[in-house]
């Protein structure tokens, strides 16, 4: 009996007080059958209940198994979908990893763009300030232009005034020139009067001093030099006439002498001597160089032909000559 139970183990259950146990393992030690046998009704009830539980369980499984299978299939499908999503996410992660460099580059470009934008904003601000200044300047120029336009309308009137002013200026300049000439004339008159008050005579731009003190030709010349003058030269008939008339018949030394004993005649005041044109002023027959000792000339007679050569040691009155430019008192 014991060997037969070990070779073919069957499902066993025991009801021990309130506990129900199932086992295919080693069967528990066999209780004392005496109480069991003493309670057959309870055992039967338990068996029935157990059977009922088994039946209900089988029925429930039969009822809910398809639904569970459907749920399981749905869950499996959802799991596959989720796996696909996970794969997609993994793929997206790798793509994102690849794009991270691009994103960083884009961030750098964004920073550069922001910097450029800041610069542009500051430039725009500067441009606004410049435009404001330009606008102010344009306003000022516009006002100035209006003033210029207003002045332009006055130009014809100003031009007429300017023409009148120019005419007046020309008249004033003419009057100034006339006044200067008058002043020069007055100054000339004053100078002449001053010289005449000192014994000089005026004739055509020159002053003449007629000394009545007889002197040798050389002493006479020294006397003229002391008066800032020289013995007179004669260059025209009118001057010759003025001189012999003013000499009043007295023989007077003039500034004509020879360069040496047999030299040419020359004027002591530096005037160029024209021998040919001067021939008309000699007394006919003169200069005769009497005694080979007549090297100085004088006005001897009251005539246009008045000159005579004479010894320089003779003493005669003399005539000094000073040009007006030398007429300072
Ligand atoms: Ca002579």
TrEMBL record:
It comes from the Eukaryota. GO terms for cellular component: membrane. It is a single-pass type II membrane protein. It is found in: Membrane. CDD domains: CLECT_DC-SIGN_like. The chain crosses the membrane at residues 41-64. SUPFAM superfamilies: C-type lectin-like. Pfam families: Lectin_C. Residues 203-321 form the C-type lectin domain. PANTHER family: MANNOSE, PHOSPHOLIPASE, LECTIN RECEPTOR RELATED (PTHR22803). Homotrimer. This is C-type lectin domain family 4 member K. It comes from Phodopus roborovskii (Roborovski's desert hamster).
């Amino acid at each position: 009996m014991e060997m037969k139970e070990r070779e073919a183990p069957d499902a066993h259950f025991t009801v021990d007080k309130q506990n129900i146990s199932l086992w295919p393992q080693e069967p528990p030690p066999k209780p004392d059958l005496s109480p069991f046998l003493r309670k057959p009704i309870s055992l039967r009830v338990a068996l029935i209940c157990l059977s009922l539980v088994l039946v209900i369980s089988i029925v429930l499984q039969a009822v809910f198994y398809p639904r569970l299978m459907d749920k399981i299939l749905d869950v499996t499908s959802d799991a596959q979908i989720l796996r696909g999503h996970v794969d997609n996410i993994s793929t997206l992660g790798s793509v994102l990893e690849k794009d991270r460099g691009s994103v960083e580059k884009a961030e750098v470009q964004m920073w550069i763009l922001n910097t450029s934008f800041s610069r542009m904003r500051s430039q725009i601000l500067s441009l606004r300030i410049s435009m404001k200044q330009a606008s102010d300047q344009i306003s000022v120029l516009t006002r100035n232009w209006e003033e210029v336009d207003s002045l332009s309308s006055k130009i014809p009137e100003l031009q007429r005034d300017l023409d009148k002013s120019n005419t007046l200026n020309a008249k004033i300049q003419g009057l100034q020139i006339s006044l200067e000439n008058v002043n020069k004339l007055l100054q000339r008159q004053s100078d002449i009067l001053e010289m005449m008050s000192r014994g000089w005579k005026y004739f055509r731009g020159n002053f003449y001093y007629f000394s009545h003190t007889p002197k040798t030709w050389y002493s006479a010349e020294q006397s003229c030099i002391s008066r800032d003058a020289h013995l007179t030269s004669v260059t025209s008939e009118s001057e010759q006439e003025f001189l012999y008339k003013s000499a009043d018949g007295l023989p007077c030394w003039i500034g004509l002498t020879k360069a040496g004993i047999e030299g040419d005649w020359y004027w002591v005041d530096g005037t160029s001597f024209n021998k040919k044109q001067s021939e008309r002023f000699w007394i006919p027959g003169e200069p005769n160089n009497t005694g080979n000792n007549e090297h100085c000339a004088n006005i001897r007679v009251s005539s246009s032909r008045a000159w005579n050569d004479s010894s320089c040691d003779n003493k005669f009155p003399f005539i000094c000559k000073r040009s007006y430019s030398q007429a300072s008192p």
